[in-house]
Amino acid sequence: MDSVGIWLERLIFLAGNSPFEAMWFIFFSGGWIVVPILAWVMVKTIWLYSKQTAYDAKKDWILLAIDVPRLHEQTPRAVENIFAHLAGAHSPASWTEKWFEGKTQDTISMEIVSIDGHVQFLVRTTRGFRDLIEASIYAQYPDAEIVEVEDYTLRVPSLYPDREWEMFGTEMIPVKSDVFPLRTYPEFEDKVSGELKDPMAVMLENLSRIGPGEQVWFQIVMTPIEQKEFQVKVETFVKKLTGQKVEVKESLLEKAVNLPIKGMGLVLETSGILGTPSVPPKKEMQPFSKILQMSPGERKVLEAIEVKASKIVYTCKIRFLYVAKKGVFKKQKTVSPFVGAIKQLNTNDLQSLKPETKRVGMNATLWFFKESRNRERKRRFMSAYRSRSNWVGMPGYTLNIEELATLWHFPISMQSRPPQLKKTESKRSEPPINLPFAPS
């Protein structure tokens, strides 16, 4: 034990005279073990990224335009059923597929675009999932028309500033933890008449009002995930909310870093250098549950969280982009109505979505290098939108199929009839003449 005392005295002496020498002393006394662990983590990350990038480059992506009949009585619940069916796209990679092939989960992007006022619903996916997409939609809308079309994002410049075009884009991000739910379509139903007031009606109306030379793009990138991951997250959150004990598991890196520190502390304590060895702590009592002390509002929040977790979930990213010729570019004409339409789903006690402006979205209030920073943001945002990236930008968050069906669904025929919303009377083999895309 004398050697331990000598080591501690040496460390205290160095720390008091030269903190730099003290750091080197700790490093050569065993702290170096952290370095190869960090290096190993970095090598693994770079290897996995390179493999996944190569794997993604080989995917065959397609864009499908969807038109529904003018007369239908379907509500957003039909689209919720579609999203539930699309969860079958979840295909977790095995250890070999992940680390040697770079296999990644295919995403599905649900989109609504307005080009010169012509509104179109689209789905972007890999060719292998086309049958899944079509079967899901035809099961709910037997007379729908689905055709493969050219990617509309390739018709505008990718770099800005541009001589003819200007753009604005942002992501919609949650204000709170994604365990909290948004306001969903069942809450838009009139309790007296039973009529559902379409929450998307105002968005489609605004999309149909833009003129020649203007384009508005709305995108929800959905990544199918393992449902258990979100269930565990919700269970942990609920336990904290109700005052129950939560076990915190350390990662492998945390264990490697903390082990030498804990071991040294144990040695010093056992040797008596730090004083009399402490008495073993008593077994902790189970915390008292806070459920009985909750207010009606708090219980409502707890119930809403558990209801959200009861349905299938996806990891999602929501993007909004407005691009137009400089002569007709009017940001407030499109951005404010879009944000207002999304705010219909916001609540103060549960979840809210807001435009991101600090890191990703264009921001006119930046203090330093405003033009160059916004120019770089435009480039990155356009690239991320075109690739339907599920990782560029802000972190993704979890939405369940009911929330997704509220954000993206076909218009309810008796309520939402924008003048230029493209619909088809019956199933056809060729795309409509005025579809603003050319078949690929």
Descriptive notes:
- This protein is an alpha+beta fold.
- It folds into 2 domains: 1-58, no CATH class; 59-234 and 295-407, Vanillyl-alcohol Oxidase, Chain A, domain 3 (3-Layer(aba) Sandwich), CATH 3.40.462.
- Helices cover 39% and strands 16% of the residues.
- The chain has 13 helices and 9 strands.
What is the helix tally? 13
Can you tell me the CATH class of the largest domain?
Answer: Alpha Beta
List low-confidence stretches: 270-274, 423-435
Beta fraction: 15-25%
* CA-CA gap between termini: 78 Å
Q: How many structural domains can be distinguished in the coordinates? A: 2
- Global morphology: globular
Helix content: 25-40%
H/E series, N to C?
HHHEHHEEHEEHEHHHEHEHEH
**Annotated CATH topology of the largest domain:** Vanillyl-alcohol Oxidase, Chain A, domain 3
Query: Which structural class fits the helix and strand makeup?
Result: alpha+beta
Quick description:
By secondary structure, the chain is an alpha+beta fold. It has helices at residues 2-17, 19-28, 34-57, 76-86, 95-101, 130-140, 201-207, 227-241, 252-271, 296-309, 331-343, 370-387, 401-407, and strands at 61-67, 108-115, 118-126, 145-149, 165-174, 214-224, 313-325, 353-355, 397-400.
